[in-house]
Amino acid sequence: MITCDEFFAEFADYLEDQVSPEVRRELDLHLSQCRACHVLYDSSCKTVKIVTESGSFELPQSVSDPIIDRVMAKLRIDRS
Amino acid sequence: MGFLSEAQLSDEFGPFVAFQEAVGFIPNLLQAQTLLPRLIAAQAVLESAMRLREGSIPRAQKERILLSVAADRQDTYCVAVDSKILSSLGLPDRQIDGLLNGGPHADLSAADLASLQFCLKLSRHPPSVCSQDIEALRTCGLGDESIFEAVLVTALAVYRCTLSLGLGPKPDFVPRKLPSTRIDRPRGPASHGLLPDAHQAAQRKGPYLPTPYLSATTFAPFAIVQKTHGFIPNFFRAQTLRPDLLEAELEALGLILLPEDVLTRVQKECILLVVSAANLNSYCVAMHCNMLRGLGMPPEEGDQVSVDHHEADLSESDKALLDFAVKLGTHVPEFSREDVVKLQTLGFTEEQILECVAVTALNNFANTLQMGLGIEPDFAPPQVFQENKVHLSGAALTPMQREGLVHVVNTLQDADVELVALAQGGQLDAFEDLVRRHTQLIYRTLIGILGNPVDAQDAMQDTFLSAFKNIGAFQGRSKFSTWLVTIARNTAFQTLRGRKNVEGLDESEHDENGDFRPRQVRAWQDNPEQSHSKAEIRQLVETGILALPAKYRVVVVLRDIEHLSGDEVARQLGLSVPAVKTRLLRGRLMLREWLSPHLTTSYKGAAQ
After folding, report:
1. A4 and chain B: CB distance < 8 Å anywhere?
2. Whole-number Å distance between alpha carbons of B310 and B315
3. Which of B110, B140, B301, B464 has a Cα-to-Cα distance from B447 of 20 to 30 A?
4. Cβ contact (<8 Å) for A6 and B520?
5. Chain B contact for A76, CB < 8 A?
6. CA A14 to chain centre
């Protein structure tokens, strides 16, 4: 079975589902037998899900509109 | 003497001794590279592992493949050498003539004949090879290791023929007479399974042969690849069936590509990129575009080199060097000593020309290998290159035909193009529409770099003003949104320069996977979102992301919040895909550390 270091070396691609079937077999086997790596994998998947679904840093229209209005007003003044 | 001068090397020079012992003479193709002995060492490593050593296919069959490919390419130098070696192995002249003239192949077994047909097909038109060809070889009794070796020997044959064409070595033996045109592919029991069909090949998924798992811990050469590439490309992972051959290949690759004493890494990567593009090898195009990004070349510049280097921001002499490489790499029959002289008149040294020939030969080796093994892409090739393939198929595409294509293709794929044209004509309403369309992307890029909402909002205003001021200079060489993000990045960097601690985003900023390891090992709740409101989760995520170092923060925001693909993030930030991948993992793991105390099972218990 591969070591935890070897598992971690493939971790980025594993998380993105970008590993070959051969590599996936090795990683799956390791996960089934290593609790620490299983916790790491499970919590990392949940992190990605939470972050991607959080809708963070969405600039409300009430904030973006005045900024855009200021920009356009300045451009129109410069033009005239 | 060949096209270039030769230096005197000792008879005890290792590769010379090896060849003398193995084949009884030192080929002039090696003598023609004496100005750079490391190139001879590279060729010797490849030949020793793939040709001279006994393997899964018999030595004589390897020599038949080499001879057939050389004859098919009208390479009189290699044909003379390979005929002599086959003869020394006891092959009767009658059989050698048969191989050279496409005559009867009654002496060959069905497996040998099928493997020969396959190798000729791979050498002639690599994109037409598909998994059905591999199945046909298996049906004829060839094992996977034998097929793997046949692909490698073909790649070696192409490598040698490219060297021979580029260096014009003096013949070692009296040249044999070749048919004036390419011989017909020999017909035999397996030929029905080897019909060229590029469309079919494109639909088949690879890799065609098994790829046993090897790690950087157990296979030392992978540790070096990890260091030089930032990851282990599929190109190498697909060759793990024979670690001994892969190790030899990596050694040769290191000898040719890594030193910078003659040509620079950027020059070499440009050679690899343009010749791969001319050979329609989208895998290698994507790889070298990314390598160039890693060396600091902007993404759109790499795309431009892949489509037409004449329009790229390169010196005239470098463009001539790439013309030379393309002519050599695509085996244009008119290639001659004159091409070498032309480079010399432009100021290139003999060592530089020699290295260019070797890099081109190595590229053809890699292109052949990739197509023969069906190696799957690590990342997408530039869109313009893909479109190029769709609209104008055929390796004979000239730079003139490609002219203007970048603009045409970008027009096809960028939904902003009409509004941009109106805005460039001075229509402010059109510009306002563009700004509103990209507000979130620009804000998220800015907060990713600056880590502060107020600064990000200020910088957003400056970004839009600057964009309008410069929109006349936008030429459509990238998507409009990419161009806008570039302005946002520059605006953000100006803000950062006003701060004390400037955090860099450059590729040169060191990224190592190994020096960050997660510490939190407690299991998380099954459904952590259920124990917190959406607003609480969002607050936690935003706080965690703002606490990340800028180079991780901006990648996480663009990939996981703005939902761009890894390749798009790389493009927007001017980074290579592997660098983005490394930073994304690090950022995600740091976020996980931050979120863990709030979402682990014990926290849930405490909350209850």
Report:
1. no
2. 10
3. B301
4. no
5. yes
6. 13
Q: Report pTM.
A: 0.85
Domain interval for residue B586: 528-607
What are the residues whose beta carbons fall under 8 Å from the beta carbon of A27, sequence distance 6 or more? Answer: A2, A7, A10, A14, A19
Domain count across chain A? 1
- Regarding whether B435 and B332 lie in a shared domain, the answer is no
| Overall number of domains in chain B | 3
Instruction: Say yes or no: A24 contacts chain B, CB-CB below 8 A.
Output: no
Q: What is the ipTM of this complex?
A: 0.94
Indicate if B535 and B476 belong to the same structural domain: no
Could you tell me which chain A residue has the CA closest to the CA of B237? A20
| DSSP H or E segment with residue A12 | helix A11-15
Inter-chain contacts counted by CB atoms under 8 A, chains A and B: 139
B175-212 pLDDT per residue, tens: 877 776 554 434 333 333 333 344 444 455 789 999 99
> For residue A63, what is the nearest residue in chain B, using CA coordinates?
B457
B259 with B38: CB under 8 angstroms? yes
| Minimum CA–CA partner of A59 in chain B | B440
Residues 6+ apart with CB under 8 A from B316: B346
Identify whether B381 is preceded by a cis peptide bond (ω within 30 of 0): no
Q: Which residues pair with B524 in a beta bridge?
A: B600
Distance from CA of B233 to the nearest CA of A (A): 11
Convert B540-579 to b/e letters by CB count within 10 Å (16 or more is b).
bbbebbbebbbbbbbbbbbbbbbebebbbbbbbbbbbbbb
CA distance B330 to chain A (A): 32
Q: Which residue, of B397, B425, B453, is where some domain finishes?
A: B397
Which domain CATH number covers B575?
Answer: 1.10.10.10
Quickly tell me which residue has 């033009």 as its tokens. A79
- Exposure string (b/e) for B190-210, b if CB count within 10 Å is 16 or more? bbebbeebbeebeeeebbbbe
Contact A9 B439 (CB under 8 A): no
CB contact under 8 A, B541 and A8: no
Q: Which domain holds residue A11?
A: 4-79
* Distance of alpha carbon A65 from alpha carbon A72, whole angstroms: 10
Domain check: are B423 and B336 in the same one? no
pLDDT of residue B332: 83
- Of the ranges A16-20, B170-174, B343-347, the best mean pLDDT one: B343-347
